Amino acid sequence: MTEATLVDVFTTRHAYVMFVLLASIGLYMMIANQNLVKKLIGLNMFQTGVFLFFVTTAFVQGGSAPVIPPDGSGGPFVSPLPHVIVLTAIVVGVSLTAVGLALIIRLYTEYGTLRADSLREVMQNE
Amino acid sequence: MSDVVLPLLVALPIMISVLPLIFGLKYENAGWPIAMGGSLTVLALAVYTITEVAANGRLIHALGNYPQPYGIELVGDELSTLIVLLIGLVSVLVLVYSRTRGPYGNAFHSGYLLLTGGLLGVVLTGDLFNLFVFLEITGLVTYALVASDRSGKSAYAALKYVFLGTIGASLYLIGVGYLYVATGTLNMRDLQGAIETVGYTDPLIQAAFGFILVGFALKVALFPLHTWQPDAYAYAPDSVSAYISALVSTAAAYALIRISFDVFTVEFFLVNDLISTAIMAAASVSIVVGSLLALMQTEIKRMFAYSSVAQFGMIVAAIAVANETAVFGAIIHLFGHGLMKAGLFMAAGILAAVYGARTIDEYAGLANRSPFTAASIAVIGIALIGIPPSIGFLGKWFIGLGAVEAGEWGVAFVIFVSTMLTLAYVFRIIEKLYFDPPGDPHGHGSDHDHEHEHDGAATDGGHELVADTSAVTVGMVVMVVSITIAVVALGFSWELFFDLLAPVLERFFQ
């Protein structure tokens, strides 16, 4: 492995830097924000970071879309597997968001608030 | 061609799960018979699979006949079929229980079947990404089922579970991504060799294991990551608590065992001493703190939930000890803990349904009025402590023995301490049940938990506990008592388990 400086990492591996940034910002938002909907957005952002990581790993320098013509020529191709994985993971993420939002709606109709701290307070006094 | 049973096991409950909703359009009570039919079929298939596997070795089914390692395969070996059997058993037992106790809706029964299918998928898959999908199916349905009694508290508990469960699964996915980058494959059997080629000390491999471990630690609720679990177990409907406490974390812990020893192999732990030491330390903290927190609870379901934190700590510690005896103990404990917790939550649900009793103080003197249920709680509680003969003893004994064999005295000591603490909290319940006069005025003050609105007939504590026997059928008590008998009877069966699991352990520790 060659010696990689910080500049190299930022100029040639920016997609990975983005993955770490997106995931950490999402995670921080989920933990630090008191608004339940924003927490859910943070969770989505964290997942998007993970998806970005998978898409990045599929990249091949000069690769084309992995559609192989009948004569089997062409290439190099980018790896199709991570794309399939991300597609599946996006579907899973959408259903998670749906379940989360449904629960948030029920909490809102029950307690009339979207803030986690006031929700805890209300539930303690119950 | 007997390997066809594996895809059937996974696909059948998932396909049947749409039927309660479809038939629900015409018949109001279609859900329960369909769910029961599905669960009984799963149980029958599970029994068939385990006899088949015990006789002829593991079954491997390549889905869609795609060549390996490109396609997804389902693998049923002795370990996974044992957990499949547990899933089949518990799903039938809990369904008999939920017949009278509820939830009743068709949507619940659809979710129930979907959860069964998801769990079977987690246990049977031989592909890391497929495992993620099934983990998420399991998670999604669990979130919905936890909130299925439509109360605000359960919705909050479920939402908390959504956040932490998803983070857990996503961390696992990052780990899988790292493994894929390092090796270029996702098939578990293929990965075993690929990881060895890359090298066990490669930072990418180590990071992958770290992410996968933390992801599963969230899913099985190890100590600092357990916060979703007591709320989810305590506020879920009783039937759902019994089902998820017995199976959901169990499936995740099973997956951790599978990945640790079938994908990373025991060599990985030998080479990375620091990793196993760190897991052992975290698991030990989880054991002690889980037991202490359980001791501090006044609400019964919450106490059992924290006790699960301690028990899963033990299983994870056994994984890190990584010798044959400890892992054998971990597998027995996984199976036994599932049965014991199902029994305890079902028994607690019966007492809550009849007397509205949900805290320890409300349990005073109930042994005279519900002798069978109280005796079941007492016996399963004693099994949970680890007093022989019981399956709880076997699991703890082999984990402890394995720790001593490996020279990990710290783990052995922690298990001993946790046994003492378990003794303390279980005997608090037994003392209340058997030796306290009924109608004890303690605990009916302002902190009294008005949780039992959802079965309108139940009374609300007070000085006089009025029994509502219509909420419970003989069948429910029979289920709890039969689990109790099984928990004790399996205490004599370690040779049975050993014969069954010998090929798996041999493969893990060749």
UniProtKB/TrEMBL annotation, chain A:
Coiled coil: none annotated. The keyword Membrane applies. It is a multi-pass membrane protein. Keywords: Membrane, Transmembrane, Transmembrane helix. Gene3D superfamilies: 1.10.287.3510. It is found in: Membrane. InterPro entries: CPA3_antiporter_subunitC (IPR050601), NUOK/Mnh_C1-like (IPR039428). GO terms for cellular component: membrane. It comes from the Archaea. The chain crosses the membrane at residues 15-33, 40-61, 81-105. Its main location: membrane. This is Cation:proton antiporter subunit C. It comes from Natronocalculus amylovorans.
